[in-house]
Amino acid sequence: MRRGRLTGARWCTSLGAQPLAGPSLAKLQAVCPQLATDVGAAGGTSYCCTEEQLDQLQKQIQVASIFLVGCPACNHNFKHFFCLLTCSPDQAAFANVTAAQTANDTGASNAVAEMDYYVAAAFGERFYNSCKDVVYPVMNQKAMTFVGGGAKDYQEWFDFIGLLKDKRFPPVGSPFQMNFPPGPPPEGISPLNSSIPSCGEGALACSCGDCPSAPGCEPPPPPPPPAPAGCPAVGTTSLSCTDVSLAALYVGLLACLPLVVRQSRQQLAESEARRSEQQLQDDEPVAELEVGSSLPRRRSGGGGGGRPEGRLLWEASEAYSTAATAGSGAGKSRGEDGEAGDGSKDEEEEEEEELVEWPATEQLLRQWFFHQGLWCARRPRLVLALSLLAVGACALGLTRFTVMTDPQELWVGPGSQAAREKADYEAAFGPFYRITQLILTTTPAANSSQTTPSGLPAIVTDAHIRLLFDMQDAVDALVANPGGSEADRSSTLASSQKSSGSGIAGGGGGGGGSWNVTLADVCLKPMGADCATQSVLQYWCMSRESFEHGPPGVGVRVTPEFCFTHWSTQCRAAFGGPIDPHLVLGGFPTDSATFRNFSADATAFVVTYPINSHPENREAALAWEAAFVQLASTQLTAMAEGAGLRLSFSTERSVQDELARESTSDAPTVLLSYVVMLLYIAVALGRFPRSSDWRDLLVHSRAALGLGGVLIVAAAVLGALGLCSWAGMRSTLIIAEVIPFLALAVGVDNMMILAAALEQQPASHPLAHRVGLALAAVGPSITLAASCEVVAFSLGGLTSMPALRNFSICAALAVLLDFLLQVTAFVALLALDTRRLEQGRFDCWPWRRARGAPLYDSDFEGMYGGSAGAPLLGDSEADGVDEAQEEVEATFGHAFHAEQPDDSRYVGVSQALRTYMRRVHAPLLRRPAVKAAVLAVFGGIFLLSCACLPRLERGLEQSVALPRDSYLQHYYDDVFASLRVGPPVMFVVQDLNVSEAAPDVSRVCSVAGCDPDSLLNQIAAASRAPWSSRLASPAASWLDDFMTWASPEIPQCCRQFANGTRCPPPDQPPCSTDPDACNECTTCFAPGQMPGGRPGLQEFQDKLPWFLASQPSAACAKGGAGAYSDAIQRNASDPTGVAGLGSRGVVAASSFRASYVVLSRQSDFIGALRASRDFAAAASERLGLRVFPYSIFHIFFEQYLTIGGEALTLLGSACVAIFLICLAATGSPWSATLIILTLCMLLVDIMGAMHLMGIQLNAVSLVNLVMSLGIGVEFCAHLVHAFVEERGPSEDRAAAALGDVGAAVLSGITLTKIAGVAVLAFSRTRIFEIYYFRMYAALVLLGAAHGLILLPVLLAAFGPEELEHWRWKLQRHLRRGQPQRGDRQQRAVALPPQQQQLGSGEAEEGGLTEVQQQLLQAQWAEQQQQGAVLQPPPQLELEQGRPSGNAAAAADV
């Protein structure tokens, strides 16, 4: 066989090349400039090709140039390679004909059928390297995918190039078989080894995007080294250095515990010794003490500050005596001898009362609450009526109540960066298209001949493809009725078509005032009349006939595997574009070592329906999506299950619909939770006598009071929602579900504390005064807790997340209203219910008595009589109470009466818990070993939680936010398991100046001649480092493609008629239908016509609209219609149709589409958003242009970029506010510090528990963390308040504080919430089960542990000093007049003159001792019993030291 080269039907024989001259030589010089130069330099003019062959070669090279023209070196080398193979005069030196055939045109038998070409490896490597990174921007793919079949080296590329077209399907390729044998050539053959330029050198150098190895191009950063496991410094691989440091700190803490035990034992011994000494002093008769004896005095507590001991209460005592004298009403007068004018007196035993010098703020609050309690108890009906009116006025705002369910509105504020970017993108390009998706996945029951590496059957079988055709037929036949008239339909479709540039095809219209839509009406059509459906069926143009029998006119069936490997060049979709198998197949391995082929390894079909998102199409799209969900959940699911497959699906509206359904799906569970808490409250508030009489149980039950308390909480929540609605705030699911629990936790705690305080008031006082004293006793601590909660939640209103902001504001209002109603309406209810109880009336039936007479004595009559405005429960005159005494007790008295109620006669939750606290819990915490264990356990939990904080994940899994039975649960599972492509990301550039004088074009483009660090080159470089950028591909660039489309290098793209109008490519009408119609068409620009080789402003203004209207085809695949229809901001008022181009010479906004890598976890999405934001910010600063990234998921994940800072700021500012409030309320920095320390430990421990329970940090959990601060204050504030008022050693004070309020806190918060939260474990929604049941349970249990276990231990060891106390010894005389039942009481104290004189001298020297005070008081009392009414001497000193000046202010009473 002779060596030669085929030329059509001939081949170049060994006789040599033939000379070319004239037009033929000129054509060769134009087509093959380097070959002409090389041959001409040697003086030759002979070539192995004809003019006809040159014409064919030119056409073929122009097709390839469409993909390669952006890189001049690659384009030149590709042309030169084929010029060498076709026209080189030395062809016989490197080519060998191995088979001949008969020519079709001439019938000659010497036509070449197969030929071997020998190419030097160095030439092949240099040629392949110059083209391997060239990007085809339209498809956002490497050009090698289209011109080389995705070749990985030069040998694969040559094999693809030389494959005979008859061996392909469709038959496109080489006219004969061209082989490129590897290895050494046979004898006599000299391999082709011409000189060609690299892509990064000389005048033909490519951009960095197409040639990243070029000099001056920044290489991609290497992959980051794996993070070192563990802590290398100590040689551990399982623990980080932080963990090791925390462990060392914990060991140091354990080493200090023996010191704690020793100190605790010393404190306990001192406490016992002091108690014994006090007992001896109490047992010693006072008469044996001498007045002048000097015994050491007891120092006062911390309330006295640095003031000198022994301050007299002369002014206050005189004021009390004066008030009692003035208020007696019996004409009493006092002479110089101090005897009373009225000799009729009732003698009472001497009474000793202990007063507390509260801080000034608390004194004012106690006075206020005392009068408020009196007023509410005396006029309960009026109070309840006013409360109802106030709540009703607030609740009227519910008429404007709306619920916010759109996730974008929930988590992103309108002023956030993501919201602004989304608004800017949609204003420029319109809304991103809506997505409806089907995922058909195999199960073990599926029938397939191949098994994938995952163990599941392969999805690619003829039967499964036919099933997919059946499903597609059902989808195509689906008809939805969005409502509206036929005229509305026509108007809507026309408007949408005009706006989108693609239109919506008409569907079947319905009469009767409605119209029907199908998929063809609502789908996205970027390139004509066909929907841009992404489906494996597009390989056969969505035609069952083509799948079964082959494309029309071919008659050969196309296999799936052929299309999977030739999708870029053959098997085009019905809408004209290629379909990447990665988009329509899923479940296959991503690593090359495991992946075999798509047919053998794919386990899922992925079908995506892009839906037109234009606002005019919204109603129709929503209706069709709703109908699609119904179809998919019934018919399509049944079809899939019948074939052993699983179907999952989603639409754009699915998440919002399922969230709306979620708000009602757990309503029964939440209602049951409230019922359980109500039942518990009713039982916990009551105390039942140890009697078998059922009537006693009905009387002592307080179900009505509990129901009233719950209704008050509900009223507070409704009032808060109404106020928020008045202000225009929209409610959320979090508000509806969380705030009632929060209000119940706070409200029930206050109810328990108020009820316990009322039980512990002296029974001798009338009910109204007991209520006033109870409110005065606990009102300040309730106010302290409520103030901290309101401020903490109010600070949450400063956050940018709408859901969190609305919740915080509404929660603050709910807590505030709950507090106001608790101290007014609930106080009135408590007075009414206590009155009912004392009268022996049935609970819930107060009009019936259990017995004929009341169970208790009562000073009140007419419980259910009288007018609403009149005092119902008596007044001060009728009560027979000394008002001055009550004022003093309210202002300076103890919060809880010294004589605790006798719990032995009753049974009930409160009694049992009180007994537990006093007899078990408090004594147990006094033991030194227990204290050490508490500190060790809580210290370990705290340090463990600190170690968990860096591991706390951010995000909210989509499956968690949805109901358990939602069809989206399976969809998200399949998305993360099957999808192999990442979401698209658009890099938007605003105000791109395209004039010649501006550098903006060079700063953005990526073709040859653009800046090496241009935006698109940087995106391409970032895509080569996906581990840091999260980008999977370079950006599709309309700018690059426009400049390529306008280039004379591909003359079939930009053409014009003689009259200057646009001429389409030769394969498009009218050129393809009428050969003579386009004879006069010429290229838009001749070579060298454009200055600098690129368009200027005038060229942009004239030809960019042509480019955007040009349809891509085989002759010119660079057309911008479809691919870039939405990539440039349009404006019909601009002369060019491009916003800003005709008027200002700028493109107002343009987007460049790239794609992320596969994102499967929340951290992947967050990392991708952060990486793209950082990239765009750096590019904007470097280029001087505004660049921002946009993707549909950005707006959902932006919150997680800042949620750590938001949480730190919100919780930190709340802690500071709580500290300042506690400091102002208690007057003790150390008390406020202990409260904040406990709250901070609680917060850290809850976050540690979140990590251990798999709870992520997001807006929902942050809401719960803020709520934990509020509830944590409830656990701490009441206990610290009770601690500072107690006397004695810290051990005793902590135990007494637990006995006073511990039971109320345990019952009001802990057990109530546990009862309600336990029900949430059975919720159908995972967000309830995870974020409410788990987190609430952790909050309640950890809060109770910190408040009732850790805090008492800290108070016993490091508690603040006690407040200053003093004792007031007096003789109370109650004058009872015959006509009046309730004369005022009179308190009179007297001392013989000789004692006054005796005391006078001693007072000047520093005052009397404690024992002397007791003796003087005893002698003073004896004088009182004898009828003497004298002023107390100024030397009469209070036992425990000096009160503050605020105590003297009681003289105003």
UniProtKB/TrEMBL annotation:
Protein's cellular compartments: Endomembrane system
Keyword terms of this UniProt record: Disulfide bond, Glycoprotein, Lipid metabolism, Lipid transport, Membrane, Signal, Transmembrane, Transmembrane helix, Transport
SSD domain sequence ranges: 666-832
GO cellular component: endomembrane system; membrane
PROSITE patterns on file: SSD (PS50156)
SUPFAM superfamilies: Multidrug efflux transporter AcrB transmembrane domain
Ranges of compositional bias, category Low complexity: 490-502
Biased composition regions of type Acidic residues, renumbered to the chain: 345-355
Gene3D superfamilies: Multidrug efflux transporter AcrB transmembrane domain
Location, primary (coarse class): membrane
GO molecular function: sterol binding
Family to which this protein belongs: Belongs to the patched family.
Official protein name in the record: Niemann-Pick C1
Source species of the chain: Chlorella sorokiniana
